[in-house]
Design brief:
- Residues 1-27 form the signal peptide.
- Residues 586-595 have a biased composition (Basic and acidic residues).
- It comes from Nonomuraea bangladeshensis.
- By secondary structure, the chain is an all-beta fold.
- The protein has a domain at 10-170: Galactose-binding domain-like (Jelly Rolls, Sandwich), CATH 2.60.120.
- Helix content is 2%, strand content 51%.
- The strands form 16 sheets. Strands 1, 2, 3, 4, 5, 6, 7, 8, 9 and 10 form a ten-stranded antiparallel sheet that branches.
- Strand 22 (290-295) and strand 23 form a beta hairpin.
- The longest helix is centred in the first third of the chain and has 10 residues, at 10-19.
- The protein is globular.
- Residues 1-28 have low confidence and may be disordered.
Amino acid sequence: MRRVLRAAAPAVLLAALLAAPSTPASAADLRLVNDGFDNGLTGWSGSHSPGGVDPVLWDGRTTARVTDADPAAAYGRESMPGLPAAAGTRYTLNAQVWAESGTAQLYLRFRDASGRLLSGGANASATGRRWNRVTTSGVAPAGTATVSALIYSGVADVGTAYWDEVLITKNVSDLGVQIESSVPNATTFAGGSAYALFTGTADVNPQLAVIDLATGTTTRKLTIPDSAATPTVGGWAATTATDGSVYLGTYPNSKLYRYVPGQSTISDLGRAEGGYSFIWDLEAGADGKVYGGTHNDGRYFKYDNGAFTTIGSVPVVAGAQNVRSIAHDPDANATYLGTGTNAALIRFDNVTGRKDSLLPAAYAHDSMVGGLTWTGGRLFAWIDRTLLVLRVVRAADGSYAAETDATIKDVDLQHSPARDGKVWFVKEGLLHSYDVATRSVQATSVRPGLDVTGYTWSGGTLIGLGGATDGTRIFRYDPATGEGSTRPVSGTPVLPAAINTLATGPDGRVYTGGYLTGGFGVHDPLRGDGDDDRPDTPTRNGLSQTDSMLTHDGRLYIGAYPSAKLYAYEPGGSWPPALLHTGGEAGDKADDCEPGKGPPPQDRPYALAGGPDGAVYMGTVPKYGKRSGALTVWKEGTAARTLCVAQDQAVVALAYAGGKVFGGTSTRGALGVDPVYAPGASATLFSYDPATGAVRLHPLPLTAPKAVTALREVDGELWGLAGGTLFTLDPARPGTITTKRLFPDPDYAAHPSLAWRDGVLLTVPQDPGHVYGTLGDQIFRIDRSTKAVTVLLTADGMEGLTADHYGNLYYRINERLYRLAR
């Protein structure tokens, strides 16, 4: 946003501004030079009568003043040279003007390659002693080479006007990458180096970085190969085989890759036994073998001597969709497998094929065993931030069972190999050790400050590598001295991150939240709209995947996955923002909103709404393997409450209207439920009364709708989208619901993610006669009175919708942000 100047010393301030260089944003191909007159009239050429235009401070701003006292003359300045333009393209011009007297005029002009004026273009005018935003647009005629702006006072006009923020855009602008990621998802070690896998996007391949642990430098970066038929986006799995080769497991193509240290290429070994989407984990076995586990068929496989082999049944545990974690005991040739949807932990004998269940009964209602390590003669199992230390014992009949040596809460996923009888990990932000012999946990005063993706030992020094708020870092800790330190890694891959959600903040900027690897982007509308492969502003790190955003009472509220975290950010404040609530800590894992019982822990906050009393409402999808979402009510100074609203349905849309909170549900539960959609269920509308706490269902007059993915208060009414149908109701009489079919329903069977977040409805103050929306791959406009719909844009893969304070619309495709001029 433009800085506001105080007029304590106008002459001094203006002189300083005139001396300052004008610096357009990099690759901003439609950014006018000196668009805010911060550099006087640089970039603005005289036109019409001489004089009449000068740079001045007005109302605390740097402006161009047009003074016209002669009704027989015309005065103005045109932005020259013009910006590159193409015939047939629509361009929109925006400006702010204060018409102290008379009428101020703004023109969009098109010229050919010789500079000849082809068309004066469309124009707009304004009057009034206040700041007005004026907009005009036009289609470039044949022969157009450039487009420019003209601030103007015509013949027969007299008056004085002050101009500021003259900005231009074409109809559709690719604003480029908004978020970057420079932290790894998976790490393994060999020969004094870390091998770290950095995730890409649907359009950009992931990379493997070779990092020298002694110097903290990246010595080699290799792009992971793939094909159009089986694209590779990223990976969670890495291990070092006994022959020194590095293996990587990827998604969404379930491929296995091998890298031989020192070589310049990575080998594509093919898909792990079919078309399954994830290799979740890899573990080295004896004699160069590698074991792995997949999603979504719960497959346990081996790669040996160039061949994949499925081990045991498919799935390896009945009902398992995921083999999420693997640990291998080379002495016994046994592999430990952590699975889900419903958590299971088994010991698999690779010689006999015998399977023994080891999961303690207390964890039977968890969804997944997220991490396993065999070290120090013990099995370390990580389940929802609890680290279990298990002693595996053999009974006389040859079966195996697990006895729990320790239960350690609030532990990060990764932990070190055992050394000197101790295993090291981060608990509640501090480095801790676990003594295998004494079964005791000891805290240090060291805070690593990074999300460790792997540990190793160098001599007697513990080394960890992972992501911090400023990128990838190496952590070192000497148990002998108790001293720890971190250092940044130089030269790591910097890759674009896919945009998961977008919103306009209270400061008018467009915020974007990253998918999977997290991160946050900030775009200043119309001030950096080039097609750029780098963000306009540095990525803000420190948040996980953003699922929703809400501007409310001067704050930007952020819903983040996992564990349905709610944050609040005040523009200009500190980053990362303040954590207000964690939905994953509430609820009972054994319940799924059965009658009289509370909701299960929640995970994905896809819906946010605000109330007039400052309350924030969050609608969520539950943790893995559950169906029932919830409504969370948060208000400053009071404890958050999480409520069941519709059993076996997630809450994916919210809006405040008529004194109540209305919510829309999805018949799709969390990942891992089977079948995907609750049998026989219909998505519904519900209301929550903040005064009484009452929840009421409002069934829709539709045949078995799958999801209500959008809600919006419009002129006192509630509007919503259920598939391709628009419905409306009066909040005071919610029993009367009218519907209108706008589009065919999305293909929810082929694309179940659409049942969480496909639709958006949006009101734009600059256009009080319409409501804007998205569904499928299109942006459309609805007439508020007639409900007639007009499709404005169709683009493969587009999602999300927000508007800037000019009324332009923003959406995303993969990692790129786009603007549609309204």
